[in-house]
Design a protein that fits this description.
- The chain has 200 residues and is of the alpha+beta class.
- The protein has a domain of 113 residues: Immunoglobulin-like (Sandwich), CATH 2.60.40.
- The chain has two helices and six strands.
- A hairpin with a 5-residue loop joins strand 1 and strand 2.
- The chain starts with 39 loop residues before the first helix and ends with a strand.
Length: 200
């Protein structure tokens, strides 16, 4: 008998692979897994930027609305100031707010309450001598808040040698800027004194 060694068994084609894991079908190496998409951070940043943009738009709208409201208030103040100036200046002829003799206070009325080219508050006063003698006038003009609750400043005004029946215009300059621009104040004659300019 001859000593014959049986041939080695063929390599396994099924079952577990070399390292105990099942081989990929067809004997090919499995592909690398696709990289994971990291879109979470980018999406969060886009959302955050959108929220910030919306907030900025809301703030801009609020600022525009506040400016528009402020302009409306200024218009109302200017109108109210003009009405108050006309009433307090004695143009209605009652002269209740002006200190002086009854026949004197009607001689002067405030024709304009405004600011000059420098920006100071000024009052222009129309004066007519209703007496029978040449007269001098000494007046005090108050510059006040539109509601009259606060006096901002005051200014004296003098008119000399006004003949009977003669008229002139005097100006009281406060040399003071108004607190909030033109229309934020009113003018009022608080005192008027008329004296004869004729020597006895």
């Amino acid at each position: 008998m001859s000593d014959q060694t049986p041939p080695p068994p063929p390599p396994p084609t099924g079952g577990e692979g070399q390292y105990g894991q099942p081989p990929y079908p067809g004997g090919q190496q499995p592909p690398y897994p696709p990289p994971q998409k990291r879109g979470g951070c980018g999406r969060a940043m886009v959302i955050a930027l959108a929220l910030i943009g919306a907030l900025v738009v809301v703030v801009i709208i609020a600022v525009i609305a506040a400016i528009a409201s402020s302009d409306d208030d200024d218009d109302d103040t200017a109108t109210g100031s003009g009405d108050r100036t006309e009433q307090q200046s004695g143009s209605d002829g009652d002269g209740d707010d002006t200190e002086g003799e009854a026949d004197e206070v009607d001689d002067a009325t405030i024709s304009e309450c405004t600011v000059d080219e420098v920006g100071f508050m000024v009052a222009r006063i129309s004066v007519t001598n209703d007496s029978s003698e040449r007269s001098n006038y000494m007046m005090e003009v108050a510059f006040e808040t539109p509601d009259g609750t606060e006096q901002l400043t005051s200014s004296p005004v003098f008119v000399n040698g006004l003949e009977p029946g003669q008229s002139t215009t005097a100006e009281a300059n406060s040399l003071t800027e108004p607190p909030e621009g033109e229309g934020s104040f009113s003018c009022r004659i608080v005192e008027l004194d008329r004296t004869s300019d004729e020597m006895g």
